[in-house]
Specification:
The structure holds two protein chains of two kinds.
Chain A (H helix, E strand, L loop, with lengths): L2 E3 L8 H11 L17 E6 L3 E6 L9 H11 L6 E6 L12 H9 L2 E2 L17 E5 L7 E6 L4 E6 L3
Parallel strand pairs in A: 3-4, 5-8
Antiparallel strand pairs in A: 1-2, 2-3, 6-7, 7-8
Chain B lengths: L7 H23 L8 H29 L3 H6 L19 H23 L4 H29 L4 H17 L9 H6 L7 H18 L21 H16 L6
Helix pairs in contact in B: 1-2, 2-5, 4-5, 4-6, 4-8, 5-6
The chains are: A alpha/beta, B mainly alpha.
């Protein structure tokens, strides 16, 4: 029997729930404070007797972390005793709207503003709205550079896409 | 649409042009890494280059699927004459104004081309284009900010931009060089309009901006049929030597 799951479907046989739990524990290599499930990168999971197939949405087309994410998924699901197949797909575009509320909270706690319209970005350190974007491009493809005029700290924000 | 039903030769030709354009501009932009005029621009140009090379890699992957090859072989194992990028990208890095002028001409043209591909009937390309478009929006914001800044700052900034546009302008339309079999792509619904149609739409967006700023206008002649080579010239021959150096240092190695 083949069961197709998405991150929003957690019911089903025990193994399906266990696979989703295991996936939820896998961190993003560039944003290790957030899991790949909370980042909205897991498009679909298919479990059958021999195989676990995970379809992953790259956050950016040229995301250099994709191979690392694939390796983490294979490691994280190794205990299920099935072949793990990880496939990148553009079937739907990954967008920052896919990040869960828990994912946004985890980013903010780590000092990275959650993705918003630049005018709506708040300082993740002090909460002020007196912030200015220094550069839309940051240390990774998915982040921008900001400066907070209230607490006088630079910070990063996820780039809304 | 199944692969069997695709107009294979025409789509392979299209993918070469898309992938090679993104690959060559990505490599050209990466030449600013470490030496851009501002720290933020160092980061920005590196990030832009990474995006463009990522787009190229994904497009080479589609091509690899149709031609039973792999993306690295497609990207690196060709003689300079076999690359199908537009001549607009054959002028060497130049100064900052040259880079901004090239990016502005290319990104405005690429935006029109992406629109023409966005509703296509071949799902793998349509899905990839949808994702690429979300990233290119940032590229256009970046380059149009710089373009305006140089165009409206009298003296050296504006003079250098005008010089760069005078050099690049005659080659700008080559992004829309007609493809040998493009009517097949239009008929199959993969491409919304011919390259000539797209060129007309692009001119309607950029010519008023150039006129408004009193910058050099584009020559009237439409893209020449050999606008994508062969014969890319010494600047590309040098770049080709650079980007194939690692690959040819140890053929077949896995990095």
């Amino acid at each position: 029997m083949v069961t197709t799951l998405t991150r929003t479907v957690t019911e089903g046989a025990d193994i399906n729930a266990a696979v989703l739990d295991a996936l939820a524990a896998i961190p993003d290599p560039e944003l290790p404070m957030v899991g790949i499930v909370d980042l909205g990168m897991v498009h679909a999971v298919t479990v059958d007797g021999a195989t676990i197939r995970v379809e992953v949405l790259p956050t950016f087309v040229g995301c250099p972390a994709l191979d690392l994410i694939g390796a983490s998924i294979r490691d994280g699901l190794a205990g299920f005793g099935r072949e793990v197949v990880v496939e990148p797909t553009f079937a739907v575009p990954w967008t920052t709207d896919r990040i869960t509320p828990a994912g946004r909270a985890a980013l903010t706690r780590a000092g990275i503003a959650a993705p918003d319209d630049p005018a709506a970005v708040r300082c993740p350190l002090c909460g002020s709205d007196r912030v200015a974007m220094d550069s839309v491009f940051g240390p990774t493809q998915c982040r921008s550079l900001f400066y907070c005029r209230a607490c006088r700290q630079p910070f990063e924000a996820m780039k809304p896409v | 649409m199944s692969i069997q039903a695709l107009p294979d030769l025409a789509i392979v030709d299209l993918l070469w042009t898309l992938a090679d354009d993104e690959f060559v501009i990505g490599f050209s932009d990466s030449e600013w890494t470490g030496i851009a005029p501002l720290l933020e621009e160092d980061v920005a140009m590196s990030s832009l280059a990474q995006d463009e090379l990522g787009h190229a890699a994904a497009l080479y992957d589609l091509l690899a699927g149709l031609t039973a090859s792999d993306r690295d072989a497609l990207a690196y194992d060709r003689e300079a004459d076999a690359y199908r990028h537009a001549r607009l990208l054959d002028h060497g890095r130049g100064d900052w104004a040259m880079t901004i002028a090239r990016r502005w001409l290319y990104e405005t043209a690429d935006a029109i081309r992406l629109d023409a591909l966005a509703g296509g009937t071949w799902a793998p390309l349509r899905e990839l284009i949808a994702k690429i478009q979300r990233e290119e929006r940032y590229h256009r914001m970046h380059v149009s900010t710089w373009f305006e800044r140089l165009a409206t700052t009298p003296g050296e900034p504006r003079d250098r931009l005008a010089d760069a546009l005078a050099t690049l302008g005659p080659d700008a339309s080559t992004v829309f060089t007609p493809l040998a079999d493009e009517t097949t792509l239009v008929d199959a619904g993969i491409l919304a309009g011919t390259m000539r149609d797209q060129e007309a739409a692009w001119r309607a967006t950029v010519e008023p901006v150039l006129a408004q700023h009193g910058l050099p206008t584009l020559p009237d002649a439409p893209a020449p049929l050999d606008g994508r080579g062969p014969g890319h010239g010494p600047a590309f021959d040098w770049l080709h030597g650079e980007f194939t150096a690692v690959r040819s240092a140890d053929p077949g190695a896995t990095w």
